[in-house]
Amino acid sequence: MVDLARQHAGIREDIEMAFIDVFDSSAFIKGPYVNKFENGLAEFLDINHVIGVANGTDALQLAIMALDLPDGSEIITPDFTFVSTAEVVRLMGHIPVLVDVDADTFNILPSAIEEAITENTRAIIPVHLFGQCCDMDAITQIAGKYGLFIIEDNAQSLGADYTFSNGKRQKAGTIGHIGCTSFFPSKNLGCMGDGGALFTNDATLADKIKTFANHGMGNQYEYETIGINSRLDGIQAAWLSVKLKHYTGYIGDRNNLADFYDELFANMQGIQIPVRSANSTHIFHQYTLKVLDGERDQISKYLNDAGIPNKVYYPNPIHNSKPYHDHSIFHIDRLTNSLALSKQVLSMPMHTEMDDEQMEYIKKTVEQYKAQKQSK
User: Fold this and answer.
1) Distance between CA atoms of 207 and 67, rounded to whole angstroms?
2) Which CATH architecture has domain 4-99+108-244?
3) How many Cβ atoms are within 10 Å of 194's Cβ, its own excluded?
4) pLDDT of 154-200, one tens digit each?
């Protein structure tokens, strides 16, 4: 699904030099390499504060901690996504409210958010899934109307641009009160282990996040609150600084590959290619098809037999997992898209190193499947 070895080979010299600098300085925790990356990412996102942390899940947890919500608050998040959003809500003693997503963009439905709001609702966690932004025009209006916080889960859409109806343009993750991302190796901007970051324009929230992430410590050995230990280390930061210089190019390469897939799967019966939101660019963390008529598993097997990787993100909505079925709020009759998508979605290989030979093999295989299907 990804080819990190080939991506890293293209920047090997810069990476090796960065590693040597870190080793020579021994600045392994925090320090100048973390500061450099945080500043570089802040400039890329056009935001005031970036705080590097140990992983994307910690970023979500720290965001909730910084908002200081009443115990048992309800936090609205999509049912069709990776589990970490609901996970941190439960871990922090709050209640995940799982709502439906758009059948075409896979992103949380604003109408479902508003329908789920109660007197106990305190925040919304929209997940910018697969590479493009949620409908942030509508979501910010809803949050403003009801006085809710917005925590953006931007683990899959770092670098996507959202254009508001008034023409204002912002990067995904910089629109709400706090944005969160992951640098897991397979992410579009990935490190060589775990890593994550939060971003905000609010100086007070930034200070609180830094304190919570450092054991609740203000000045050394002076503890202002109960915190956790979550830090981005120097090696990961140095690695990320090198890749950040190439990141815009990586996004362009992914879009070129998406264009190839679009042409390949266009007009194929029972297949819907990814729908691009009119208000968002797409960075294609995943290229995700909708396979209709119950043929998803058949196509997946055909690709697997031909040695072509493919993946289902995600085979189960969150509410179908026992911990969340029993400890969240949802209405099964309002989750029709999430349930349907879990049986329809199929993601193709998506990375920056796909070469002509690989693309030609995928094309040949898919066309053989088309011909086989048409002959029946």
Assistant:
1) 12
2) 3-Layer(aba) Sandwich (3.40)
3) 18
4) 999 999 999 999 999 999 999 999 999 999 999 999 999 999 999 99
**Quick one: tokens of 91?**
């871990």
Sheet holding 74-78, edge to edge: 49-53, 196-200, 178-182, 149-153, 121-124, 74-78, 95-99
Q: What are phi and psi of 95, to 5 degrees?
A: -115, 115
Residues 6+ apart with CB under 8 A from 314: 80, 81, 82, 342, 345
Asked whether 49 and 206 are in contact (CB, 8 A), the reply is yes
Tell me whether strands 49-53 and 161-163 are parallel, antiparallel or unpaired.
unpaired
Cα–Cα distances in angstroms (integers) from residue 107 to residues 111, 174, 241, in the given order: 12, 17, 29
**Distance, CA of 295 to CA of 290 (rounded, Å):** 10
Query: 3-class DSSP state for residue 132?
Result: strand
Q: What is the pLDDT along the chain (376 residues), one digit of tens a residue?
A: 888 898 999 999 999 999 999 999 999 998 999 999 999 999 999 999 999 999 999 999 999 999 999 999 999 999 999 999 999 999 999 999 999 999 999 999 999 999 999 999 999 999 999 999 999 999 999 999 999 999 999 999 999 999 999 999 999 999 999 999 999 999 999 999 999 999 999 999 999 999 999 999 988 889 999 999 999 999 999 999 999 999 999 999 999 999 999 999 998 889 999 999 999 999 999 999 999 988 999 999 999 999 999 999 999 999 999 999 989 999 999 999 999 999 999 999 999 889 999 999 999 999 999 888 777 6
Distance from C-alpha of 4 to C-alpha of 223, rounded to nearest angstrom:
41
Instruction: Record the tokens describing residue 18, joined without a space.
Output: 């960065």
Tokens of 359: 């693309």
What phi and psi, each to the nearest 5 degrees, are found at residue 236?
-65, -40
Q: Do residues 73 and 122 make contact, with C-beta atoms less than 8 angstroms apart?
A: yes
- For 247-375, CATH number? 3.90.1150.10
Sign of CA dihedral 133, 136, 142, 147: positive
Domain boundaries, the chain: 4-99+108-244, 247-375
